[in-house]
Structures are given as C-alpha cells and as structure tokens.
Known about the structure:
Blueprint: H1 34-41, H2 49-55, E1 62-72, E2 79-83, H3 90-93, H4 100-105, E3 117-120, E4 125-133, E5 143-147, E6 152-158, H5 164-169, E7 180-183, E8 203-212, E9 217-223, H6 226-230, E10 234-239
Parallel strand pairs: 1-4, 3-10
Antiparallel strand pairs: 1-2, 4-8, 5-7, 5-9, 6-8, 9-10
The protein binds copper (II) ion.
Amino acid sequence: MPNSSSCTAVLPYDSIxxxxxxxxxxxxxxxxxxVDLIALAWKNPYETKNKMDAMLRRRVDRxxxxxxxxxxxxxxxxxxxxINNATLDMSRLKNFxxxxxxxLYNGNEQNLPNDVTYTVKDNExxxxxxxxxxxxxxxxxxxxxxxxxxxxxxxSYGAGMYDKSISDSISVVHLVLRDSLILYASEYxxxxxxxxxxxxxxxxxxxxxRMIADNPGLWIFHxxxxxxxxxxxxxxxxxxxxxxxxxxxxxx
Length: 252
Ligand SMILES: [Cu+2]
C-alpha cells in the first residue's frame, strides 16, 4: 500500500515459525478511507480518471473478434478449445526452444504462431470481443479470461451472438480497470431445445473488453481454467515489439 502506514499479515517461514493459534492480540490496521481508496484506484501514470472514462466512449482504433469453441482433435481422440479455428495447446508450446519474446527482440518471427497472434500497436484503443459457444457436451461453459501486460475495462456483455449495436447502446461509466473477466455464458433456458448436444457451437454469450495498447511485448491472453489453457484456449497479443528494449538486472 503506497500511501498507507500499516497492514497486518502472518507469514510462516518454513518450519521455524508457526501461525499463532490466537490472533486476538494482533493490532488491526486502520482501514483506508473511501476517498483514499478511490484516489489509489485511479492513480495511474498515463491517464486521469476523466480521461479514462472518455476512452469508453471514443471510437476504437482496432477491434478483434475471438470466436471460442470446443472441437475434437483430428484423430478424434482428444478435445481442444479453439479460438478463431486455432489452438495454442501444449503440443505447440513444447516446441518452442527459445522464448518467443527473445525471438521478436532479435527480429525473428519465424517461430511466431501467426494463427493465434493478434497485433496491436502505437497506443491504439483496442476492443476485443470474446464470443462463447456451446461445448461438445451441450454446455455453455464460463471462461475466466486473464490478460498479461495490461489492464482493461469490461465494455459490455450479453447473451447469444455478439451484436455491435447492442454493445454500442450500453452505457458505461466509471468502470473499474481489471486484468480478468468472465466470458458471459447464456443460461440453458436461452436455448431451444434446452441443454443438449445438438446445441453444439450455438452462440451462447459474449463479453467485450476495451484496452489501450501501451505496453510493448508479446502477451498471452488465456482462459484461467488450467485445463482449458492446456487444451489451447490462449491467444498472443503482439504489441510494438520494435520498441522492445533489453535491460540487465543489477548484479550483486
Ligand atoms: Cu475456459
């Protein structure tokens, strides 16, 4: 907490200390006043709160539509999660022998998996729409997506198939910056017939995020359910990699 004098925590280290059984003797820290919390939440090096609110109403520079779906592997033995017909699963990740970021720093893009890579640049205001579809088992699953390297706003969300006019009509004010979102999942009641495998691939909810491309790098954006990530529910965001710099850690 940068502007708070205290907080209380109990940290056991290996076997040499134990969590005390009676915590009643610990002094509670004073809680931050709400006005301080708001100031902390909006303390941002590149934008004021008012400017950030304006971002939500600005015309975006770039929009990506990510259609998520489940699919059998070509041999019929496995299941993968795919985004726009591509999957970044373990079988591909294990083939990377050098860090892709280092490759990009060196101007080498030959190992970059282009079918799962999305480019943003130059402080663009970017919308990413995640579209959910019914899985092979007839379920519309919830996916908690997490983005590395950025915070974003959840701009809007809804049932069924993404509709830009609905998205544009949603009034958004004072949204909180975050790095994770829930990809909306429609209820079974939404479908006809209800929960059945014949609904496979039906559109079943969407969530749209808005972000500023202000951090050069190669960033993963992925479902945070471990199994889903292993099954390929990941994309890469390639951002201003010509601006990457190499810094050495100080040696002691
Ligand atoms: Cu998932």
